[in-house]
Amino acid sequence: MSTDVSTSQQNRRARVRAPEPSGRAWLNTGGTTPRLAERRGKFVLLDFWAFCCVNCLHVIDELRPLEREFAEELVTIGVHSPKFEHEADPDALAAAVERYGVDHPVLDDPELATWRDYAVKAWPTLVLIDPEGYVVHQAAGEGHVEALRRILGELVPEHERRGTLHRGAEPRVEAPEPETTLRFPTKVLGLEGGTLLVADSSRHSLVEFAADGETPLRRIGTGRRGDADGEAEFASFSEPGGMALLPERVAARVGYDVVVADTVNHLLRGLRLADGAVVTVAGTGAQWRDEPDSGAASRTALTSPWDVTWWEPAGGVVIAMAGNHTLGLFDPVAESITRFAGTTVEGLRDGPATEAFFAQPSGLAVAGAGEQERLWFVDAETSALRWVEPAADAFEVHTAIGKGLFDFGHSDGPASDALLQHPLGVAVLPDGTVAICDTYNGAVRRYEPATGEVSTLATGVAEPSGATTSEGELVVAASTAHRLERPVPPGVTARLIEGGSQRVNRPATEISPGEVELTVVFDPPPGQKLDERYGPSTRLEISSSPEDLLVEGAGVGTELSRRLVLAEGIEHGVLHVVAQAASCDDDSEVEHPACRLTRQDWGVPVRLDSGGSERLPLVMGGLDEQ
């Protein structure tokens, strides 16, 4: 791992020509087909993303200031590399580009041709190309903007001196926004009196509807991105998500009735229903990286809280913390945040709540009462329905439907065989069965806890993302239809669909059974060095699915390379790799140098083959030069 070689020296040593991106179509280009060859003289940043991936959405937001700062020198191109079948639908991608405010060119690459050309192994991945068309930096994960800023700060003057830099802002292609009351609603909450509160994510506000779900009564929020507290017409949100109604005894003490997951602000907000006043109740506004995630609510960072619900056995509001694959717990009275479940490792593993693996938990619902009360949740990236229940003095996590990070589909029957596709919402029906917003299948599914059977209640629902019951009926936020729907009329009979299973078309990495050398590549940004003032500056954690895939090499260590021994006789599996590195400004005269922690987790699908590689490099930041 190099710490004393300048970026420009590394670039001249590597000199890898960037392949021309290729795919099915382009968005945000006005019908033209951009080519790297036409952008000689500019830096080009390729952002490999998938709209299912919350970490990819973080990167889109992180890049906005960098794009403004280097508007004359840098062109960003999104390369959409789908994980799920639904993401390969061009209309779904177009909706996602609008939903998340992506205004740079986007390549639709459903066959992952460009992904393979650039040897990408993780969502998200950033690749920086210099004005002469050479790859000069690659980074997986999020939190790399400062490193990119430093690299550009060093390379822009160099290319200016050499005459290879040509400044000039790229034109933006803007599409008019259609006139609809809602724009990409995500969640819906039933209120006393029968009205419905809806999170209107792309309009950055909340809308209360009459019981018919069509007549708007009031809008809470300005409709513009922001984090302002105050009265309903002055408060602001950024892509709000789930909402939880507090018990009356709790609301009376804290002075607000509803907790709102203000997703992109990384905050929880309190809403007083009487007048629509909004107050921030948890989060710092900064995204959690790897700092403590328990403590005073106002001083504890959150990361993309996607949904919230009050759960009595936990004594507070459970938070689906999609951004780091955990469940958090907010105590409104004590004004505290704690981690309730999960380890931050992305995957599917049951057991004690503190040891379980989750994968972008996105929807929550409570069923039962007393000791029989369950917390149901959907794990989007493992296409799973799961639950938490009290067990002795702790909590246990169980899986009802779901097989892992790369298996999905639409299939009913026994839960052990049933398949979902990236579900985002869940609700408990009056008869105790569980309704699932099977988002990427465009369906509402039902799980019967007593029998373990799965069936389909409705199809043709446009990305159902959240649901509630109102007067015995299921009300669903049909996100890409921009409205509330009641897709399951009273008395409807569930049906069984014998759909096929699907797997992610991302190519598996072929490696050899037996000994394999795994290396995480990380070069500190220019002007920084690894921070070893207080001990080892790096950390590497490795596990696998199935667990017996790894004979040796699992666990936590401080080196970014490790010898693994992979089991014979297992054809496919997933290596879960979490790496982090701490770096600080390389200036011995500064008493308090600027420091940052770089962290990335990979779920690497592998295929074991005797002819496979005995080396597995993963680039967290820098270039793999072997």
TrEMBL record:
Residues 1-11 have a biased composition (Polar residues). It holds the Pfam family Thioredoxin_8. GO terms for molecular function: isomerase activity. Gene3D superfamilies: 2.40.10.500, Glutaredoxin, TolB, C-terminal domain. Residues 1-31 are annotated as: Disordered. Residues 14-157 form the Thioredoxin domain. SUPFAM superfamilies: NHL repeat (SSF101898), Thioredoxin-like (SSF52833). Keywords: Isomerase, Repeat. This is Thiol-disulfide isomerase or thioredoxin. It comes from Actinopolyspora righensis.
